[in-house]
Design goal:
single chain, mainly alpha
Length: 349
């Protein structure tokens, strides 16, 4: 596997990129590019960045390299290219994948390019291109099955990436090496999915990448590496079940984590108040404000922002004015990135 070029940021560069990445009035493409570079700077490979941000690995690689070659100024420039610009968004591509793998057309056993084009509003050529790129063949009814996994589209991207970009290390032959290789591939998919659902879990991704880097550098043998992977798998399993212990859904847990991380000293009672705020905020935003394409209109964006500010204003007094403003920003950004509209989010509805 080709290892991506290393991105090293000094304090000033990181500060400027973080400011852009949090910008609510800046062009979305510039915000996205800054986030790509920031993730590259913590050691993520292009496939991992793509999985987390919902973009292609090629796009992640392109803006990593443009930043390395041209600095911050290069992120604001789009290369000129001949022909008609791309008009099919990644969101629309995901919709085609979702319908292909999760739904069946009315009065038919499988999708055709014509019925899928009519359902999603794209051309038949575009449908054919997406199916070909993802290896989807719904017309082969004897072998093609509708997946019941609500995260299928995200997993498909990661699995394809694993096949195209196998583990860097040249594993020795032997049972333990094969087991380690399989476990690593499984954990790569799992941790990418978990971080996509909750970005406060970035430390898990960084820990995983560090293990891989140390092994590739020869710092540990396959037995030690396998033991570390097993221990990491247990940590991921515990993290997946944490919401149950907190009595929060996955979506509520994300908001709770955004409000409480980095760790804030609070009493048990205050922690309970924060959980209540997380539940109320999620319900209120989803029920009242997430209209179709809400991110495209200034008025609907302002409506979501106002609800965030009003509900977070009921947080415990430990949240002073500065901390309150910071949390309003990160929680609003969470809704902006994770929710496209009613029943359309990274959480599958």
């Amino acid at each position: 596997m080709r290892v991506a070029r290393t991105v090293v940021l000094d304090k000033e560069e990181r500060g400027r990129l973080e400011q852009i990445a949090r910008g609510r009035s800046l062009p979305a493409r510039l915000v996205e590019r800054a986030r790509i570079v920031l993730r590259a700077a913590v050691g993520l490979q292009d496939q991992q960045i793509a999985s987390e941000l919902g973009i292609t690995p090629e796009k992640a690689a392109r803006w990593r390299n443009r930043y390395l070659d041209g600095g911050l100024e290069a992120l604001g420039k789009d290369a000129t290219r001949p022909g008609r610009p791309r008009t099919i968004t990644e969101e629309r591509t995901a919709e085609v994948i979702h319908k292909t793998t999760q739904e069946k057309p009315f009065n038919a056993t499988h999708w055709s390019t014509r019925t899928m084009a009519a359902s999603t509003g794209v051309s038949e050529t575009t449908v054919r291109r997406i199916w070909h790129a993802k290896g989807l063949k719904p017309h082969l009814v004897k072998t093609f099955k509708v997946s019941n996994d609500t995260q299928f589209a995200a997993k498909l991207e990661v699995i394809v990436g694993l096949y195209l970009n196998p583990p860097e290390h040249d594993f020795d032959k032997g049972r333990k090496s094969v087991e380690a290789q399989k476990l690593r591939a499984s954990l790569a998919m799992k941790v990418a999915r978990m971080v996509k659902l909750n970005r406060t879990r970035m430390d898990f991704l960084e820990e995983f990448q560090k293990m891989i880097d140390e092994y590739n550098a020869g710092s540990s043998n396959v037995e030690i590496y396998f033991a570390k992977l097993m221990a990491f798998a247990k940590k991921l399993n515990a993290e997946e079940k944490r919401g149950i212990g907190e009595q929060l859904s996955e979506e509520e847990l994300v908001i709770f984590d955004l409000l409480t991380k980095p760790v804030i000293e609070m009493s048990k009672g205050e922690m309970g108040e924060v959980k209540k705020v997380a539940r109320v905020l999620l319900a209120k935003v989803k029920q009242e404000k997430l209209v179709l394409d809400w991110r495209k209109q200034q008025t609907t964006r302002a409506g979501v922002r106002l609800v965030v500010e009003e509900v977070l204003d009921t947080l415990p007094r430990v949240y002073d004015k500065g901390l309150y403003a910071q949390k309003c920003d990160v929680v609003y950004q969470h809704f902006y990135e994770g929710y496209a509209g009613p029943e359309r989010s990274v959480y599958g509805g």
